[in-house]
Structures are given as C-alpha cells and as structure tokens.
Amino acid sequence: MAKLHDAINGYRAAAAAWWGARTEQEQRMLAIGGTVVGLGLVWGVLVDPALSGRARLQKELPQLNQQVAELQALAGEASQLAAQPPVQPQPLSKDGVAARLQAAGLVTQNLAVTGDYIKVEFKGVPFAGLVTWLDAMRREQRVAVQEGSVTQQGPAGQVDANLTLRQESSAQ
C-alpha cells in the first residue's frame, strides 16, 4: 500500500511541476479546454443517450400499448374458445367417404365402412393424393390410421395401399 501511495505522490509531484512550468495564460486555456472536454464527455456518455432513448420510447409506447391490447383480446378469445366443447365430426358413412375419395381423385378397389372403422384398398393411386386425402380426413373427420401398408408400384409416385382407419371420439 505504501508503494501505491508513493507512486501516486510521485505522479502528483510530476503533474504539479508540469503545471507550474506553464504560464498563467496557458493554465487558463488548459483549464477551459479540460472543462469543455469534460462537459462533452458527460453529454456524450450520460445525457444524450438518455434523451434520445426517452424520445424513442415515447414514440414506440403507443404501438406497444396497442400490441398489448391486441394480445389481451386474443388471449380472451382463446380462453373463450378453449371453454367451448369441441365440434364433433359427423359419423362416418360409406357414401361420405366415397365422395371425399372422389373429390380427391382417388379410385378404390374396395371400401368398407363399419361404425368408426374404414377399410380401404387402393391400386395404382398417386402417393401425394393419398397423403393429401389422409390429412384432410384427419383434420375434418378425426380419422387416424390404425393399420396400413403402402407399396410402390409402376411409375414413380404410384402406390398400392391397404389402410384401416378409425374415427376418434371425443371421449378419448
């Protein structure tokens, strides 16, 4: 600690000697210059960022308040929708499934609908069309594949498929 104190005193003495070697006019000019530089640093580091940040926040605050209100409205709507019972899909019928297959452009070899189950057999259908139909059935009718086999046939993208699908009920 004594070495540090001695070093500080040495720097003070050197600075005092340097300052004392200056004329009165030089000392005045250096004091004014140091004050201007110090004020510039205080302004640049503390005052200006605070003022510009405040102005930016005042400009953004109305937008942020509007976004908060929209999010609160969406959250309220989501909670209302969550409280409602889910919409039940229509019971499966052979005619309804056949109509959906025809709308998707798929031709079946065999189609059987029994209760919540669909057994369907395809020969040479486009794989993309089959997957699109399955996705639509999953979303609209809550149908899941219970058992299935898909094999590639003939030209690229054509498949044979045997699928057993089951409509899920809300009780599960």
Query: Structural class, judged by helices and strands?
Result: alpha+beta
Number of strands: 4
**What is the overall shape?**
elongated
How would you write the strand order of the largest sheet? 1-2-4-3
Helical content stands at 55-70%
Order of helices and strands: HHHEEHEE
Q: Quote the beta fraction.
A: 15-25%
Number of helices: 4
Low-confidence stretches: none
The radius of gyration over CA amounts to 40 Å
Mean pLDDT: 89
* Biggest pleated-sheet summary: 4 strands, antiparallel
Termini separation: 77 Å
Overview of this protein structure:
The protein has 172 residues and is an alpha+beta fold. Helices cover 61% and strands 22% of the residues. A four-stranded antiparallel sheet has the order 1-2-4-3, covered by helices on one side. A hairpin with a 2-residue loop joins strand 1 and strand 2.
Q: Summed up, what is this model?
A:
The protein is of the alpha+beta class.
List the helices and strands and how they pair.
Elements lengths: L1 H19 L3 H60 L10 H11 L3 E7 L2 E10 H15 L1 E10 L5 E10 L5
Antiparallel strand pairs: 1-2, 2-4, 3-4
Task: Spell out the key features of this protein.
172 residues; alpha+beta; four-stranded antiparallel β-sheet; 4 helices; 4 strands; 61% helix; elongated
